[in-house]
Amino acid sequence: MAGKIERLPLDRRRELFVALVAAQDEGLSVPVSRETIAQRFSVGVEMVRKVEDEGLEKNWPPFGRR
Fold it and tell me: Is residue 13 part of a domain?
């Protein structure tokens, strides 16, 4: 993952990922959860998607290792 995603520190990307998973666990649809988290973290939806992909690819918590 290169480019703009690297401008967000790793700890912030992980925090965003956890918040996204939690929003979906609470029943928000995927598109609505992405919009909600994008607003909460003051980033674009595309950034949320990239972080989501990174988190899934790297098996970040809450899905995998810490």
Answer: yes
Residue 56: pLDDT band (50, 70, 90) is very high
Domain membership flag for residue 52: yes
Global pTM value: 0.86
HSE-CB for 26 with a 13 A CA cutoff: 11
Element (H, E) at 47: helix 45-57
pLDDT at 2: 45
Domain count, the chain: 1
Whole-angstrom distance, CA of residue 65 vs CA of residue 26? 22
Residue 22 lies in a domain: yes
Q: Quick one: which of 8, 21, 7, 12 has its CA closest to 61?
A: 21
Domain extent for 25: 9-57
